[in-house]
Design a protein that fits this description.
CATH class of the largest domain: Alpha Beta
Strand content: 5-15%
Distance between the termini: 74 Å
Radius of gyration: 41 Å
CATH architecture of the largest domain: 2-Layer Sandwich
Largest sheet: 5 strands, mixed
Oligomer: single chain
């Protein structure tokens, strides 16, 4: 049994015992059955105050009003009035708006009955007792409204969190599809070269070396099959950007053009190439360009008046890229959850590299990526 259940059961029983004790020791001038109804009828129904609060209120008020109207018991015992207050509170706190209005009507009817039955000061008695009961009922409705608001806000928070997670997952899926479309062109170009070279070599050999010609024919046929399967796969990935997918893919050789575009947009950019530039694998080349592009785009959006620096370092086994700006960004302006960073993470993860982003100690924002060059062209 939980603590709330213990209170829900224990309180009415303790109140009933107290009411019976008070009625028995107060010398109530009323038959015992009527006194028992007065004592127990205002306490025991509270056991069901959460399940049927309006019914419990009607029973408790009747148990108070009828004995008091016939024998004036309320003047000699006051403990049962506590049960009336609890039932009144329950009728406001544990009901909806419609049931709460019905409870308010029940209170009004019983008040009128009491006032008329007492008969001495109808207006004064009704105003005094009604003021207490309606104050308790009003306070309960306020508590209920705040609880409903808190529950609604909690549910909305959970809903927004789910929506945020779904959008993040959708962004990852979309970015992976975009990367797949770009890499398709890279791989398709390589396969095309293989097929063309195999076919040309096979035709050049003729019948001089039949075994080699057969192997080359197999390579050519396998390559064409692979290209057909890749076109089918691309058809599943494309949406509305088919024209974009057909455009030539950029590379690190186009960084000068990208930097020039950013300068024209209003941000001064310095480009530094460290190490000996050399050809790298097409997929790494494309991903490195896209990382620089996304980082500079974020800088344009969020850094404000600032300068940026792009550094590309060619190492023996890896390619290091750093894009840093000296702009002053508010916490809300940092692109912590933007789709650009999602794309960078996906591209770096594709090649087993590392990505680090965040504010710089001296001000501004920095993006650092490391892409392994294993398998790159030499």
């Amino acid at each position: 049994m939980t603590r709330r259940q213990l209170v829900d059961v224990g309180f009415p029983l303790v109140l009933a015992a107290a009411a019976v004790t008070e009625v028995a020791t107060a010398g109530v001038d009323a038959p015992w059955p009527i006194a028992a109804v007065f004592a127990l009828g205002t306490a025991l129904p509270l056991l069901w105050r959460r399940r049927a609060p309006v019914v419990v209120l009607a029973v408790v008020l009747s148990s108070l009003a009828i004995p008091d109207a016939t024998h004036g018991i309320a003047n000699e015992a006051s403990v049962p009035f506590i049960g009336v207050l609890v039932a009144t509170y329950a009728s406001g706190a544990y009901t909806d708006r419609r049931s709460g209005r019905i409870a308010a009507g029940v209170i009004a009817v019983v008040l009128l009955f009491l006032a008329v039955s007492i008969g001495e000061n109808v207006a004064g008695d009704a105003l005094f007792i009604g003021g207490i009961l309606y104050a308790v009922w009003g306070a309960a409705t306020i508590v209920r409204s705040r609880q409903e608001l808190a529950t609604a806000l909690a549910a909305r928070t959970v809903e927004l969190e789910h929506e945020r997670e779904e959008k993040a997952q959708l962004a990852v899926v979309e970015e992976r599809a975009r990367i797949a479309r770009e890499l398709h062109d890279v791989v398709a170009h390589t396969l095309s070269i293989m097929v063309v070279q195999a076919g040309a070599e096979r035709r050049a050999l003729g019948a001089a070396r039949p075994e080699t010609s057969e192997v080359l024919a197999t390579i050519e046929a396998t390559g064409r099959t692979a290209m057909a399967e890749m076109r089918r796969l691309l058809g599943m990935l494309r949406r509305s950007d088919d024209e974009l997918a057909l455009a030539p893919q950029p590379s690190l050789a186009h960084l000068d053009e990208l930097v020039a575009q950013v300068r024209e947009a209003g941000m001064p950019v310095d480009l530094r190439i460290e190490g000996e530039p050399r050809p790298v694998a097409p997929g790494v080349d494309l991903s490195a360009y896209r990382i620089v592009q996304e980082a500079l785009t974020n800088a344009l959006k969020h850094a404000g008046p600032a300068r940026a620096r792009v550094t590309v370092r060619y190492g023996d086994d890896e390619l290091d890229i750093e894009i840093a700006d000296d702009g002053a960004r508010a916490p809300a302006a940092a692109p912590a959850g933007g789709h650009g960073l999602v794309g960078m993470r996906e591209r770096v993860a594709l090649f087993g590299g590392d990505l680090a982003t965040g504010r710089r100690r001296g001000g501004g924002y920095a993006v650092r990526a490391r892409l392994p060059l294993a398998g790159s062209a030499r």
